[in-house]
């Protein structure tokens, strides 16, 4: 099972709406499957063009390590050498900060991940979680 395109669109639209409601800077949101492949992506007007790589790196890191962004960031804070190795291993497609969220179904199975970038990492994670929950899925940030 994976995240459907309809669920991905709900995740993105809700994450963006959450950002607007909270007065966040322009966001970019990517939804990936369990292989780190993009299902859907959207970059708001005013968001820098390089935001896709950042959003994907957050989501991809979650998938590749099976950890939420908060756990990856904590590990980066305590073991920078490990994060450097992971970034090299995954060809630079690994951003070890909050804003990457694992997406699970109701039984706990990982279906994919979401990466949000554009505001603070905490706000990015908040928007991602709102999107995942709106799609009827479980967010692990």
Summary keywords:
single chain, 47% helix, 141 residues
Description:
The protein is globular, with a radius of gyration of 13 Å. The protein has five helices and five strands. The protein is an alpha+beta fold. The protein has helices spanning 5-21, 51-65, 69-78, 80-89, 121-134, and strands at 28-32, 38-43, 100-104, 110-117, 138-140.
Can you summarize this structure?
The chain has five helices and five strands. The chain has 141 residues and is an alpha+beta fold.
Layout: helices, strands, pairs:
Blueprint: H1 5-21, E1 28-32, E2 38-43, H2 51-65, H3 69-78, H4 80-89, E3 100-104, E4 110-117, H5 121-134, E5 138-140
Helix pairs in contact: 1-5, 3-4
Contiguous uncertain segments of 5+ residues: none
SSE pattern: HEEHHHEEHE
Question: Approximately how much helix is present in the residues?
Answer: 40-55%
Q: Number of DSSP helices?
A: 5
Oligomer: single chain
What can be said about the biggest beta sheet? 5 strands, antiparallel
């Amino acid at each position: 099972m994976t995240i459907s395109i309809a669920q991905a669109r709900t995740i993105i639209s809700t994450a963006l709406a959450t950002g607007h409601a909270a007065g966040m800077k322009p966001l970019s949101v990517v939804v990936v499957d369990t292989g780190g492949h993009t299902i859907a992506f959207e970059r708001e007007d005013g968001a820098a063009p390089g935001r896709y790589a950042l959003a994907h790196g957050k989501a991809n890191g979650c998938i590749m390590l099976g950890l939420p962004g908060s756990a990856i960031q904590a590990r980066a804070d305590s073991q920078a050498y490990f994060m450097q190795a992971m970034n090299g291993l995954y060809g630079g497609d690994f951003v070890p900060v909050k804003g990457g969220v694992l997406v699970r179904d109701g039984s706990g199975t990982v279906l994919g991940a979401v990466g949000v970038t554009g505001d603070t990492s905490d706000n990015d994670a908040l928007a991602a979680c709102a999107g995942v929950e709106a799609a009827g899925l479980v967010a692990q940030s």
